[in-house]
Each structure stands twice: as structure tokens, then as C-alpha cells.
Design a protein that fits this description.
The chain has one domain: Alpha/Beta hydrolase fold, catalytic domain (Rossmann fold, 3-Layer(aba) Sandwich), CATH 3.40.50. The protein is of the alpha/beta class. An 8-stranded mixed sheet has the order 4-5-7-6-8-9-10-11, with helices on both faces. Strands 1-2-3 form a 3-stranded antiparallel sheet. Helices cover 36% and strands 20% of the residues. The longest helix has 14 residues. The protein has 10 helices and 11 strands. The two termini are 24 Å apart.
Length: 288
């Protein structure tokens, strides 16, 4: 990343020159970056090596409590609402996966980092894959959680859930989040509590439209043929019972990314919350 005048060039993306902007935003207590066409909400927590967290479909930081994330104990962790979600503006219509990846690169530059560790979960993992291909210079180490390379190894098409009745949709979501739920009442009860946690997000002007944009971009996600070009040391993390991003998809990621390791945890799509070994393994990988 090179600094020239009043902009930082991050790959092919131009963003405002940023250490001063980030410092000024903190001093004014304004947790927003104005980068190109987005008014982007972010939070920074903890101290240590820099870590960018890219969250999954529909995530709103007002619900996911980034201030209490366990990795804040070891890292300076930057969380942000993706375009159209939470408190970030929606931006131009029909963003592509490349746009979401460029947003992540803008966030890194806007906070004054030349590079950082990156952890992407679910849709955020897809964004992280595109980031690794489009802006490899900004990633030190990469963690991919419950995600897929797309194409012939795509995650479950979540947009198909809209075609089901409410009862059918709830039952399908239960099984997708953890395939054990159909036969294990204890797992099913846990997953229901997990699913209920994010069902009533704060009112936003763009939240529904933002989620729709994510789903549209997600349909075109396919980096299967390009995985061999990812240079960053990579930890691929999977839930053994994940019905959204099946284990086979993570196995393919780990097989095709040159410097990748696969770790399988006892859980479904939200395995990070189900298996206490997961965050410890991620922390150790990033601190290595």
C-alpha cells in the first residue's frame, strides 16, 4: 500500500489517506468512515496485532456485540457493518462480490493499516476469499469459517428459503444450522435460541434491501478455479454438522489453497459458539 498526497492506494482502490482520518474519527467519537460512495459504520476493540472481522449475511453490529468478542483480548479487532446493513449506507445498487471485497480493503486502508489478519465467517468468508485474490498485499494471515468457494462447491442457496412456508422455513433453517437438530432435542433447542437472537434487528432504512443485495451477490460467488492463487497462510475452520457450508466445501478450500490447514469442530454453522476449542485454535494460528 502506498500513500500519495491525500489518498491511499490499496490495490486498485483509492480511499482517503487514513491515519489522520481514523484518529480524527476517534477524537470526535464518530465511528464512521466516509469511503468513496459509502458512509460506513465500524468499531475497534482490544489491543494487539491488527485483525479485521468480516461478518456473515445480514449481520448488524448492534446485535452481535463486537465489544465482547473473545479475540479482543489478543488483537486490535476492527468490525464493520457491510453495505446496506446495520448503520452503514446501502451505496449503489447491485454490488458484486468484488465490491464487497473492495469495501473490506477500503476499511483496512481507512483505519491506517497497511495489512492485517483477516477472519471471515459465512458470507464474510466469501468476501475474504475475494479480498485475498483482489488485494493479497493487505492480508497477513487468513481465517475462513463456515464458508465455501462457490461454483460447484457453493453454500446452500439461502434465497430458496423464501419459497417455503413459515413452518417449513423454520424447520429447514434449524437443520441447516446444525444437521443434528432433526434427531437431537438438546441441539435443536440450542439452535432455536441461536436463531432467535438476531430475529429482531433495530430498524434501519436499508437493512432489508442490504440483505437482498448480499443474497444477489452471493449467487455469483465462485473462486473455485482461483484458490491456488491465494498466498496468505490460511486456517480453514468447519463445523462437522454444518448444512449451509458443508464440510466437503471446507475440505476443498484447504486442499486447493496452497498454504492452508483444515480444522473441523463439533458443531454446525455456528460452531464457533458450540465448540470452545474453535476460538482458541484461531487465536493460536493468528499469533503464530
Amino acid at each position: 500500500m502506498a500513500v500519495a498526497g491525500d489518498v491511499v492506494r490499496c490495490g486498485s482502490v483509492r480511499v482517503p489517506a487514513t491515519p489522520a482520518i481514523a484518529a480524527d474519527a476517534r477524537l470526535r467519537g464518530v465511528p464512521f468512515f466516509d469511503v468513496d460512495d459509502l458512509h460506513l459504520y465500524y468499531e475497534v476493540h482490544g489491543e494487539g496485532p491488527p485483525l479485521l472481522m468480516i461478518t456473515g449475511s445480514g449481520n448488524d453490529l448492534r446485535l452481535s456485540s463486537p465489544a465482547t468478542h473473545p479475540l479482543n483480548r489478543n488483537f486490535e479487532t476492527l468490525f464493520y457493518d457491510q453495505r446496506g446493513l446495520g448503520q452503514t449506507s446501502i451505496g449503489p445498487p447491485n454490488p458484486t462480490m468484488a465490491d464487497f471485497a473492495d469495501d473490506a480493503a477500503r476499511v483496512i486502508g481507512a483505519h491506517g493499516w497497511e495489512s492485517c489478519h483477516v477472519m471471515g465467517s459465512s458470507f464474510g468468508g466469501m468476501v475474504a476469499l475475494h479480498l485475498a485474490l483482489r488485494h493479497p498485499e493487505v492480508i497477513d494471515r487468513l481465517v475462513l469459517c463456515c464458508t465455501s468457494p462457490g461454483g460447484a462447491m457453493a453454500s446452500y442457496p439461502l434465497h430458496d428459503l423464501a419459497e417455503l412456508t413459515e413452518a417449513e422455513r423454520d424447520a429447514r433453517r434449524l437443520e441447516l444450522n446444525d444437521q443434528r437438530a432433526a434427531d437431537d432435542d438438546e441441539v435443536a433447542a440450542w439452535v432455536r435460541r441461536y436463531m432467535a437472537f438476531g430475529e429482531n434487528p433495530p430498524e434501519t432504512t436499508a437493512g432489508v434491501a442490504g440483505s437482498v443485495q448480499q443474497m444477489k451477490a452471493r449467487r455469483t460467488h465462485d473462486v473455485l478455479a482461483d484458490l491456488g492463487s491465494i498466498a496468505a497462510p490460511t486456517l480453514v475452520c468447519a463445523g462437522r454438522y454444518d448444512g449451509i457450508a458443508p464440510l466437503a466445501n471446507s475440505e476443498r478450500l484447504a486442499a486447493d489453497i496452497p498454504n492452508a490447514t483444515l480444522e473441523v469442530f463439533e458443531g454446525g454453522h455456528p460452531f464457533v459458539l458450540q465448540d470452545r476449542r474453535a476460538l482458541a485454535r484461531i487465536r493460536d494460528f493468528l499469533l503464530d
